[in-house]
Write a structure and sequence with these properties.
Radius of gyration: 17 Å
CATH class: Alpha Beta
Strand content: 15-25%
Number of domains: 1
Number of helices: 8
CATH superfamily: Spore Coat Polysaccharide Biosynthesis Protein SpsA, Chain A
């Protein structure tokens, strides 16, 4: 089949060595048409030289910004692919053939594809899959339990991808995913691992503020009672093991 062009957007700031690993991983992909954009917040380390080593295979923007979500918006505005995928510095595509497998899961191109995420420790140890099992989404309402799809494991058709709402500092990705799902006509669960990420990101470090924003976002989309119930379940889930084995 003829695969669509995918724009992978990588946001980074003072993470040169993590970025090197991520770009090397992305560029091993077997997708014929791949656009890689690195949006840097004017790093003061050797990020620029890391990107330059990859030559014209990577488009590079480096300038001050207000944070990760403004950088993501820049990436969206600069992308030219049919689909956009955020794989930020430190994140990885699970396997070189992961992207082509995405499009092999359905005969017609969908508006959104999503899948599982493998979690690793900072030492690289495999911890397991995210504890929440992915829903078989028919509509966006199947995602009322919150960020059940990891931001690194969702591809969105560029023409329906919203801009990130900059009033949120830690949970704008939840709002972004919900808005994209609302706009989508077709949503496909690929039933495969699409990405890997290391624990300890911004939402983990600022967990309390992130949960506050998350509740406000979910309340806006689903109402007070469903959101309160979902967060009570979230507290219950916190008592369970932090990750799932691949076989589950």
């Amino acid at each position: 089949m003829k695969y669509p062009k995918v724009s992978i957007i990588t946001v980074t700031y003072n993470a040169a060595e993590a970025l090197r690993v991520t770009l090397d991983n992305i560029l091993r992909s077997n997708l014929p048409e791949l656009e890689v954009l690195v949006i840097d917040g004017a790093s003061t380390d050797h990020t620029a030289s890391v990107v330059q080593a990859f030559g014209d295979r990577v488009r590079f923007v480096s300038e001050p910004d207000s944070g990760i979500y403004e950088a993501m918006n820049k990436g969206l505005r600069g992308a030219t692919g049919e689909y956009v995928w955020f794989i930020n510095a430190g994140d990885l595509i699970h396997q070189p053939e992961s992207i082509t497998r995405i499009f092999d899961t359905a005969p017609e191109l969908a508006d959104i594809y999503y899948g599982e995420t493998l979690i690793r420790s900072e030492q690289g140890q495999e911890l397991g899959l995210r504890k929440k099992k992915l829903p078989e989404a028919k509509t966006w309402t199947n995602f009322r339990r919150g960020m059940v799809v990891c931001h690194q494991s969702i591809l969105v058709r560029r023409t329906i991808a919203p801009q990130y709402d900059l009033k949120y500092r830690y949970a704008a990705d939840i709002e972004w995913v919900l808005l994209a799902l609302q706009r989508a006509q077709t949503i496909v669960n690929t039933h495969t691992i699409l990405s890997e990420f290391v624990t300890g990101g911004t939402s983990t470090v600022h967990r309390k503020a992130c949960l506050h924003e998350r509740y406000a976002i979910m309340k806006h989309h689903f109402g007070t009672l469903p959101t309160t119930w979902a967060h009570l379940r979230f507290l219950f889930d916190a008592l369970k093991p932090a990750y799932r084995r691949r076989s589950e």
